[in-house]
Amino acid sequence: MPNQAQPSSRLAQLLHERILILDGAMGTMIQRYRLEEADYRGERFQDWPSDLKGNNDLLVLTKPAVIREIHEQYLEAGADILETNTFNGNRLSQADYGLQDYAAEIDTAAALLARDCADRFTALNPAKPRFVAGVLGPTSKTASISPEVNDPGARNTHFDELVTIYAEATRALIAGRVDAILIETIFDTLNAKAAAFAVDQVFEEDGLVLPVMISGTITDASGRTLSGQTVEAFYNSLRHVRPLSIGLNCALGPDALRPHVEDLARVAEFCTSFHPNAGLPNEMGEYDMTPEQMAAHIAEWVDSGFVNIVGGCCGSTPAHIRAIAAAVADKPPRQPRAHDHRLRLSGLEAFNA
Q: Residue 86: phi, psi to the nearest 5?
């Protein structure tokens, strides 16, 4: 792929020089536009037989100006890394709308859109290069949890199916010239392992290598993923990928996420990334944590030596990203833990020998 090696190596280099800023929530920003069914359909899908409202990924085809404007707002706020609008850009998730055959097209279009935005801002200030992370979301299925209460062995997807759909999405993102692949909002580690396997398979078959970023989700106060793993067990399960960064996002605000951030920063031999929600949703489903409050929490993380990449998830806006960027400016990044050659295994708990 043209121009892949240079920006990717620059991304890795910058991580050791300063804290990098990831963008904020896409869905939160899209809600501000109050789009209706006709907006999601556009001209191309105006006769589609099922409802399309809520399929935010489709907007890269039907309302690209909206997605471009959101990307640009985050770049203006100081984001170094844009996430592609592809959280549901895979066959399993798009099948909910009957659009599974359009998943690859959505991914490439989303990547090219983010790429153009990032490149234009880099050209305006070459001293602050901007990067694009191609997002592989968790899909709408889980490979390790039964969807049937009375049948614990039931599954609505499996490892090989996930590998196939993730490989397709990875190739589509690469065609859009992303700088890295971000496997994010991981609630089921088996899904993530399928994604990582698919990405590595694509790299081997297509003769290229990009950095891989991994971000899991702690679902509640138990400190575990939905599939039951502790933070360290999650880390042990995926450290073989040797990612550019590993971290946590979504579900919790920075106050509730803080102990889990510390746990991961304590053990990670790689750079860390965190993009929490802007608190927890209120009774109306809205997020009340202000940019200043969120930035104060994250500044403490940085002062404690936990962070290499930081941004925002649900409820965050360009104002949150601007405040975070200002709060961490000129502060030193975390130094990854030295590899200690210990045997690290995991089930639901970590086992280190």
A: -135, 30
How far apart (Å, rounded) are the C-alpha atoms in residues 204 and 187?
27
Residue 179, classed as helix, strand or coil, is coil
335 burial (CB, 10 Å; 0-12 / 13-18 / 19+) is: exposed
Q: Work out the number of other CB atoms within 10 angstroms of the CB of residue 90.
A: 29
Q: What single DSSP character describes residue 176?
A: T
Q: Which of 106, 114, 112, 84 is nearest to 176 (CA)?
A: 112
In the 8-state DSSP scheme, what is residue 96? G
pTM, to two decimals = 0.95
Burial of 236 (0-12, 13-18, 19+ CB in 10 A): buried
Phi-psi region of 116 (alpha: psi -120 to 50; beta: other; left: phi over 0): alpha
How is residue 25 written in tokens?
């929530």
Q: For residues 170 and 142, what is the distance between their CA atoms, to the nearest angstrom?
A: 19
Contact 84, 69 (CB under 8 A): no
Q: Is the pLDDT of residue 6 over 70?
A: no
Strand 309-310 with 180-186, pairing: unpaired
Nearest to 167 by CA among 178, 184, 181, 156: 181
The amino acid at residue 94 is Q
Tell me which amino acid residue 208 is: L
Task: Report DSSP letters for 263-331, one per residue.
Answer: HHHHH-SSEEEEE--SS-B-TTS-B---HHHHHHHHHHHHHTT--SEE---TT--HHHHHHHHHHHTTP
- Contact indicator for 130, 121 with CB cutoff of 8 Å: yes
Alpha helices in 57-212 (DSSP H): 59-62, 64-77, 91-94, 103-124, 159-175, 189-206
Report how far residue 27's alpha carbon sits from residue 185's, in angstroms, rounded to the nearest whole number: 14
For the record, the structure tokens of 228 come out as: 């039951």
Lateral strand order in the sheet of 245-249:
20-21, 309-310, 271-275, 245-249, 212-216, 180-186, 131-136, 81-83
pLDDT tens column, 250-283: 999 999 999 999 999 999 999 999 999 999 888 8
